[in-house]
Specification:
five-stranded parallel β-sheet, alpha/beta
Amino acid sequence: MILVLDFGGQYNQLIARRVRENHVYCEVHTLTGGKTSADKNVKSGLGTAINFSAIRDLQPEGIILTGGPQSVYNFSGKEQGFLPPEEIFNLNIPVLGICYGAQAMTQVLGGAVKKSEVSEYGKTNLKIIRDSKIFAGVEKNSVVWMSHTDRIFDLPKDFVATASSENCPIAAAENPAKNLYAVQFHPEVLHTVEGKKILSNFVEICGCRRDWQMDSFVADKIAELKNKIGAGKVLCALSGGVDSSVAAVMLSKAVGKNLTCVFVDHGLLRKNEPAEVEAAFKNYDLNFIKIDASERFLTRLRGVTDPERKRKIIGEEFIRVFEEVAKKIGAVDYLVQGTIYPDVIESGLGKSAVIKSHHNVGGLPDFVDFKEIVEPLRLLFKDEVREAGRQLGLPENIVSRQPFPGPGLGIRIIGEVTAEKIKIVQDADAIYREEIFKAGIAPELGQYFAALTNMRSVGVMGDGRTYDYAIALRAVLTSDFMTAEAAQIDWKILNTVANRIVNEVKGINRVLYDCTSKPPATIEFE
């Protein structure tokens, strides 16, 4: 295992992703101050707080210190958790500091970090100036991704500089005798051309066996769930998407008939989706319950325009429906959700910023009437969830199903959600998905959908004036759903979609295409 210590950077999830690509298991934890605080025996899992005692108990083969938005010289002591304790660097295991992590390593070990004369953001040319195990097989000159206003001015004792850039003389440094490495750039992002190689080199330095496989994760997780839940009753929130489907089958193998899967039709699903989900699971040996709660969700959302409020209302209402079903079943202890790692990150992990509260994480109400919420996929990225589904024997049409957010069309409708707007976006989205499928490009796209903007504009139809809404089309290329690139769909396809939507969907007179990547945008609109 490699342990990733989170200092609040937005790329932290990608570090875990890159380490996993080397078939090495890793966990991301938020560092707390102090060496023997009350959270010494924290449970294993993403997002939990961890201190030095717990780090030592985990016995990782290596540690990575992430980037973050702070300045290391703003902290006089180490108790805030924004600086790692010096003891971490004396565990006789390799440590890699990235950006803020490199500066934190420098500060704690006696070097100097100051505000840079020239900040570096974006693509930068890196020059390797000294041989290093971390740069083995790496081009001497390559492009890296920088994002910093501070830099290392003086190195700690026994450290040497190993790379530089035009505005950063110490872009990488190391203490080779203690296997301590610091890089000012971000090797985890794809813009760093040799980034994967650099992280693979760190895995090699750590001596990891590279034997972590999805089949072993699935088997271990089923055994863990069986041991944890025992004879307890479990209710699974089943949406029909790949995440909740994989979670449901995993729980079914762990607890059998003690599992009840509840599919809630909140009225914010895609066109014909309730019937499709019900048909997909009718042949599975699951206790399947369908609840039509569309009216109560629409009532709760009436007049609400703020996207965070919409997410939290939908998240709370889901929980209340599940609680009501659980009372009817009787003695249900556990609620299972298909939460995955990107949900956790964007909802705010440790010192990371809240991008948007996912209904199943940051959107949960303060009180939940279950003994515990179980999230067996919380450690996985989307492509890892798909692989777990294949290991569990799920059919490819479910494993490769188009992602659909829990809040549904509620976050694909900008502004207030109404029955009229729901029908508009359902019809437009159905046309878009149909044409994408007919064009044969669906397998190439990570996600594609139509969203209803809150913008109305003047148009002309049949020699008459219209004043209707604009539909925005979106399609992205992504593997982990933490970063995404806008897909360049052929204009003929988009033109066909646009013509069909304005002619077939009442209330639309304009079609737009969103060509923004993530970041700076998110995949969904709200």
